[in-house]
């Protein structure tokens, strides 16, 4: 399963570099989007930060199911 | 109101027949009026109609039919119809009744031209929602319903105060953009009323609290109307209000973080409403360009389709197994491939995968953030997409339909009507995603936008594949836990309880030990002796008066009884004498 996902990731990064950086078939709105495979990077970092924030938050807010009883 | 029949009023008036009809025809009738309302919406022609005389005010026109209100009325009436089909097999009459009424009220909101009728329809929404929450008839749902109505009354009062101040200030009843009054107190009051119904933090906790407490049919009706009516109101009233960009972006991320921690299927989906409405709110804030407002409208339209599909799929899981926690489910895809398929259509749509309506729905909003040059919104909305993918496709999808079975649940087959409505919505989710320009033609403002660019597709695929990668890495860490997560309803749930307990400790003892004793003292030392004194005074003085008057009346009645002989000819004589006396007086007077 994880191998399949890694292959997908590699294909997307490859396509991003070929189609957008080399063939210039699209352009972003901001200068930081000129980074190669910026969206993939954002996807990885964004998801990671959401997972980390949620896990830290859960220490404080997760309670037993009968909390409000 | 000559050539326009108000579909909302048809539904509202028509729905009152539903509870009195026999159960054999009740649901057929409710689907019938749903269909009538949908056809009235799609045949309505733009224009201004109607006038009312209410509270001594003459208001005209009251109905506005333009592209924006039509777009919302199409989706409200359509989803109302789908909801009525979904609950076709239900014996309870309250749910189709409240559902049809709710649909009618939201169509009324979208067509209202003046603030008075807008407000009346708006308040009707909350009433219907509470009926749907209570239709579950459990202790939790009753309590959640009360919390819902208390929060919405507070929001409604803020809106009402704002509307009154607005009418006083502007002298008009027209519900149009308030942006020329930006920063006035009533501007804020109305905005608070709207964003409360849009479930924007910190005023959002009513939504994940109440929606999972309703029946599975109730939550299908609940999820499209109130929040999306609020989005409509924001598009109409607050286009380009900058505060909404930041509020919406934070909302979008806030919702997914909570969704990721949830265990209850419908509460997870409820947090996604908060998140998705965040996109729309941000889009309204980016409404300085048409792309933002069109994005909000298109996202609201498409969101209703896939969100109802998701709620229907979650409802189907709950209907089939009786479980609604991921810690009790797992491996369900094996038993119900149809439910799994429709769930994943909805899940990929909400995450915005290319060739689903979620992709074409929210793309204009993110592009608008790019066009305006708002980095904050651009990054946060993209991060919220990551959160949507990981919490709904990955976590909910994996731990409900795949993974190993966690309890030994039994599977009840679904009624055909539930399957029909889920199939129709799935087809629409894909269909609109494949043919975006056909749909964009119905958007309220002119724009030239193509969602399927190479850059956009590659970016989306990149976000998807790397989010899956993170999920695969954290698979064990993200397994659902049998916990609940505290949200901002904590202050009024625990706070309310502490308040009462605080009263028990302070006011009650004070009342008992101080006020009570003081009161007794006043009674003993003041009031009772005073009473005794007046009593003896009465005996001495006042009694004589009553004895005297009694004696007087006795003498009078004794004398009177002497005349009352009881013989009929005596009375005849009295009458004749009386008549003669009357005649003499009369003659004397008219002479």
Main features:
heterodimer, A: 69 residues, mainly alpha, elongated, B: 591 residues, two-stranded antiparallel sheet, 73% helix
Based on CA inertia axes, which overall geometry of chain A fits? elongated
- Please identify the structural class of chain B as seen in this structure: mainly alpha
Most extensive chain-chain interface: A-B, 45 and 51 residues
Q: Give the CA-CA distance, first to last residue of chain B.
A: 67 Å
Radius of gyration of CA atoms of chain A, rounded to a whole number: 19 Å
Q: Work out the helicity level of chain A.
A: 55-70%
Shape descriptor of chain B reads: elongated
- Give me the count of strands of chain B: 5
* Helix percent band of chain B: over 70%
Determine the strand fraction of chain B and express it as a percent band: under 5%
* Quaternary structure classification: heterodimer
What's the mean pLDDT score of chain A? 90
Indicate how many domains the architecture of chain A comprises.
Answer: 1
What composes the largest sheet of chain B? 2 strands, antiparallel
What topology, given as strand order, has the largest sheet of chain B?
1-4
DSSP, total strands of chain A? 1
Q: Please summarize the sheet with the most strands of chain A.
A: none
- Overall pLDDT of chain B, averaged? 92
What does this structure look like?
The complex is a heterodimer of chains A (69) and B (591). Chain A is mainly α and 69 residues long. Chain A has one domain (2-61). Chain A is built from 2 helices and 1 strand; from the N terminus they run ααβ. Chain A has helices spanning 2-22, 38-61, and one strand at residues 62-63. The longest helix of chain A is centred in the C-terminal third of the chain and has 24 residues, at 38-61. Chain A is elongated. The termini of chain A are far apart. With 591 residues, chain B is mainly α. Chain B is built from 21 helices and 5 strands. Chain B has helices spanning 7-15, 23-43, 67-86, 94-111, 115-134, 139-170, 185-197, 206-210, 216-237, 242-261, 265-285, 290-321, 337-351, 357-372, 375-401, 416-434, 436-440, 454-473, 490-505, 507-563, 568-590, and strands spanning 47-49, 52-54, 57-59, 63-65, 484-485. Chain B has a two-stranded antiparallel sheet with strand order 1-4. In chain B, strands 2-3 form a two-stranded antiparallel ribbon. In chain B, a hairpin with a 2-residue loop joins β2 (52-54) and β3. In chain B, α4 packs parallel to α9 (216-237) and α11 (265-285) runs parallel beside α14. The longest helix of chain B has 57 residues, at 507-563. Chain B starts with 6 loop residues before the first helix and ends with a helix.
